[in-house]
């Protein structure tokens, strides 16, 4: 299972254009192709925060009725999946087969996350601009590093509705691109019908749930940092090599960035006994070969790497 971070699609400060995103996705596809060339069968997920935010803002700016977040999630899942699938086709030779699947993920409408929006979406703003937009558009906003962004509810994923379809495709040797942006958040109404939910599910938590359901041997979260660090941003910062969930639980990580990845890694390892890796996109092969990134493992002494 490979979860591509938002940097695989759009790096902070880059123009939100189709050409920029395709260039970044092409780079991601080449890294994934290297994994496949080594004999690994992949299931791929990806982020969509900047794209969802952009589409929502475009709709509001044009004076159109705003589409709900579940619809925007489905739209971006198809859009990003199309480009990623095409670039994987271009990067891989032979008889590799790919499929993009819109994926619904059940959430609990009573999840406390709905009362405390925390998932960043869309562009970054100065504090003054963010507060102005929050007042104009009724947004919730929060600091994201040195900037500010809109934040929306991010309930925990409970169940992947298309899991049986994904299994069928995987059993046929298809590389499946699914659960993009954490999947499309849905819940059951009182009458039993499925309905969309105004939220964005955390991609890493949804990917970890999917990895566990598929009994994946390894769960990789590829991002724009080389590893999980202790003392991040200080002279004492150190990168973690092999580390157990118990060791990670005793450490503190930023809730808006590395925190969800660490929690998703711990959940996967505790639940399956497999290995979870966190590191840079270009180090994907190195993480599996235990020479790069952070590897969360069930029973191994942790190794701090400078």
Describe the secondary structure blueprint for this structure.
Elements: E1 2-4, H1 18-37, E2 43-46, H2 49-61, H3 69-91, E3 97-101, E4 104-106, E5 119-125, H4 127-137, E6 140-144, E7 147-152, E8 159-160, H5 163-171, E9 174-178, E10 184-188, E11 194-196, H6 203-213, E12 218-223, E13 229-230, E14 238-240, E15 242-243, H7 245-249, H8 258-272, E16 275-280, H9 284-288, E17 294-296, E18 304-305
Parallel strand pairs: 1-2, 1-12, 2-9, 3-9, 4-10, 12-16, 15-17
Antiparallel strand pairs: 4-8, 5-7, 6-7, 10-11, 13-14, 14-18, 16-17
Helix pairs in contact: 1-3, 2-3, 6-8
Description:
37% of the residues lie in helices and 24% in strands. With 306 residues, the chain is of the alpha/beta class. It folds into 2 domains: 2-107 and 155-305, 3-Layer(aba) Sandwich (Carbamate kinase), CATH 3.40.1160.10; 117-152, no CATH class. α6 runs parallel beside α8 (258-272). The chain is globular and about 50 Å long. It starts with a strand and ends with a strand.
